[in-house]
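Supplementary notes for students who missed Thursday's class. We covered one full example, reproduced here. Read the sequence, then the structure, then the short commentary at the end.
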Amino acid sequence: MSMLGMLAYIWFRFELRFGIGAVMASIHDVVVTLLFFWAFGFEFNLITVAAFLTLIGYSTNDTAVIFDRVRENMRKSRRKPLIEVMNESINETLSRTIMTGGLTFLTVLALLILGGDVLRGFAFVMTVGIIVGTYSSVYVASPFALLWERYFGSSGKLTNKSGSVPVARGDGGRSTPGRDDAAGGEQPLPQPRPRPRQTRRRA
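Structure (token representation):
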């Protein structure tokens, strides 16, 4: 229910493709953390449920920061493909993502080591979840948003029909017969100009 609520919020606040990417990243974080939690044999209780809900909120917040920068860059450069805009946005927010995740990781690691048995499960979920959630915001959320846009979105706004980026030709705007130019159309062959008639002068 919390993931559905976040999907609806991001869909309303951003776009559906970004909401799909954020939800898939949250599902990835929960599944991977749950596998580690099961492998180490911790007890599943209400504190653990609170830890997983906290992890979902943290992962979605980190993903929303990246998507917000993507939206800003899309407004600045409307003609760029979505993959290039996402690449630039991730590079711009990468330092913030690493520093925020690193500081949170140090905090929950201290809880895991010094917190005792009561907080051991909560701290373990958050410790593993911070690591998983940090890279999923970059390597899971953004690719799923690109896949949704490619297969289900209106790709005509960002890419051409074939899914590739149109590249401008370097021949001064001329195109060869039978090929499409950079705008996607076929240029007709130039017609020869009619020669002026020559009149003979009378002697």
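Commentary. Confidence is low (pLDDT under 50) at residues 156-186. DSSP finds six helices and no strands in the chain. If anything here is unclear, bring it to office hours.
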